[in-house]
């Protein structure tokens, strides 16, 4: 007779892993990036696909895995192809994937995210495109570019 481990009543055949898969983290970050770019709240996305905002949070963090049908639903609401969520994904396999996930979580906690994945960047892009005057938008773009060049040369 086999001894049961105390407190281990998992129904699925998958072992519990402390760190999320880097694939789940990447897909979740792409969901968050697109949702934020559209100016959509987690609550609004959740309602559109029949979930709570807490469940959306877990998907975006990679804590919960997005199944294929749910990922399809999310792609429809966010108006992107399913492949969007896998773009720019680094290839990682085996044990390295869990180390990469831990590192990704640490970077997220330290706000060391890729600048393109930061909320500030996404909000800036949205604000930029809300400027109705194309000439003024171009002047702002030129100013930002000049400021970025002058500060990088000053270092």
Descriptive report:
With 155 residues, this protein is mainly α. The chain folds into two domains: 16-115, 434 Repressor (Amino-terminal Domain) (Orthogonal Bundle), CATH 1.10.260.40; 118-155, no CATH class. Helices cover 59% and strands 0% of the residues. The chain has seven helices and no strands. The protein has helices spanning 22-37, 42-49, 53-61, 68-78, 95-109, 119-129, 134-154. Helix 1 (22-37) packs across helix 3 (53-61) and helix 2 (42-49) crosses helix 3. It is globular, with a radius of gyration of 20 Å. The model is unreliable at 1-8 and 105-110 (pLDDT under 50).
CATH topology of the largest domain: 434 Repressor (Amino-terminal Domain)
| Biggest beta sheet attributes | none
Number of strands: 0
The CATH architecture designation of the largest domain is Orthogonal Bundle
From the N-terminal CA to the C-terminal CA, the straight-line distance is 69 Å
Helical content stands at 55-70%
> What proportion strand?
under 5%
Q: Rounded to an integer, what's the Rg over CA atoms?
A: 20 Å
Uncertain spans: 1-8, 105-110
CATH homologous superfamily placement of the largest domain: lambda repressor-like DNA-binding domains
| CATH C-level label of the largest domain | Mainly Alpha
Structural class: mainly alpha
DSSP summary: helix tally: 7
Shape: globular
Number of domains: 2
Write down the overall mean pLDDT: 78
